[in-house]
Amino acid sequence: MLVHICCSVDSHYFLQRLREDFPNERLVGFFYDPNIHPYSEYRLRLMDVERSCRKLGVELIEGEYDYESWLNAVRGLEHEPEKGARCSVCFDRRFEVSARKARELGERRMTSTLLTSPKKSIEQLKEAGERIAAKEGVAFVTVDYRAGGGTQRQQEEAKKAKLYRQDYCGCLFGLTQQRVQQERPLAELFDPVDGRTLPGSIQERLALYEERLRLEEAGRNYRIVRHKFLNWRLLYGWVKRKKETLPSHILPYSVMKRRYTSGKVECESGGLHCFNREEVRFMTLARYNALAGTDYASLEALFSSPPAFGLELEVRQKAGLDPWDLSPLVVLEEVPEGKLEILIESETWRDVREKLVPL
C-alpha cells in the first residue's frame, strides 16, 4: 500500500495503526507536499518524516517539490478558508500524483496521512481519494484513526518520539490567514539577506533538528524544551541627513512608537549619542567594534557579514542598555551634527521557541 505522507506528527501514529490493521501489506511512504512553504519548512518536515520512517522501518520516497505547479493549480483560490475550495484542489493535486506513483510501483491500494489530521475533513478526503485513485486503477483506503481517543494518542506518540510539531498546515495562504487572525507577523517568510539565523525562525529550528540527528547518531540523550520570549523583526529602516541616506546598521530589538521621527543628537555619554526623539541612541562603528570585538572597516562590510544575532544583543547590554530595553540603537560611521531623520519599521510579539538540551 502506498501511503501519502504530509508530516511526521500525522504519519508516525498513522503508520503504526496501518500495520496493526493491515499486517500483510508492505507499506511504502510517499512524501509529496509541494504546498508547503517556504522551502526551509519543507526541508524540516521532510527531515522529520525521514527520521520517523527510519524508526518504523518504512520505506520512504520523496516526491517532486513542484511548488509553481501547485500555485498554478490553486490560482484564484488564495482567499478561500481552511477546508474550502483551495484545500479541495490541494488534495486533488497530491492524490493525483500519489495515485500515479502507486500505479507506477505496482501498488493496488493507497491512502493518506491527511486522514488523521484534525484540521481536515475525512469525508472531503474520502471523496477526493476514491474519485482520483479510481482513475489510475488504484483503491483508496479510508481509515478513521481519530475516533476513540486516537487524536490524543497521536499527540502522545508525537511527544514520545520527539517529533517536530509544526504550528500551521503548510501553505502560504493558510499561513497568512492564520497569522492575521493571531495578529502576528509572517515571521516564517523572513529570510535576511545577510544570511543570519534569527531567533524563532524556521532556519533556527532546522539547525536544531539537524543537531538532534547528530546527537542520536552519537547515542547521546537530549531534551527539546520550549520557552516563551519576545521576538523581533526589522522590516526596514534608514537614517537621513539633508535628504541623503547615511549608511547605518540597526541593532536588534530597536523599536519606535512612530515609525518616523526627526531631531538632533543632544548629548554623548559612554560612547552613546542620545537623540532628542523616540529614545534613539547612536554609536559609531569604532565603538561597535570595541564592544563586539570585531574589526569592520566599514558599514558595508558589517552589512555583508554581520556577527551572530546573539552577539549584537550583548553589544546592546555592553553599551549600557538593559536586557528589557527596546530603545533604538543605530550604528553610523560617524555621528554627524545637525538635524537627522530616522525611520524604523519593526515588529515585536510574544513567541515560543525550542532549545535542544543535551543530557
Strand order of the largest sheet: 3-2-1-4-5
The main sheet comes to:
5 strands, parallel
How many helices? The count is 11
The arrangement of helices and strands along the chain is: EHEHEHHEHEHHHEEEEEEEHHHEE
What is the number of domains?
Answer: 2
Low-pLDDT segments: none
Mean pLDDT value: 95
- Please tell me how large the radius of gyration is: 25 Å
Q: Structural class from helices and strands?
A: alpha/beta
The third-level CATH topology of the largest domain is: Rossmann fold
Polypeptide structure, described:
There is one protein chain. 38% of the residues lie in helices and 23% in strands. With 359 residues, the chain is α/β, with parallel strands linked by helices. A five-stranded parallel β-sheet has the order 3-2-1-4-5, with helices on both faces. The chain has a five-stranded mixed β-sheet with strand order 8-13-12-11-10. Strand 10 and strand 11 (272-275) form a beta hairpin. The longest helix is centred in the N-terminal third of the chain and has 21 residues, at 85-105. It is elongated.
Q: What distinguishing features does this structure have?
A:
alpha/beta; Rossmann fold; 359 residues; elongated; 5-stranded parallel sheet
Brief summary:
The protein is an alpha/beta fold. It is built from eleven helices and 14 strands. Helices cover 38% and strands 23% of the residues.
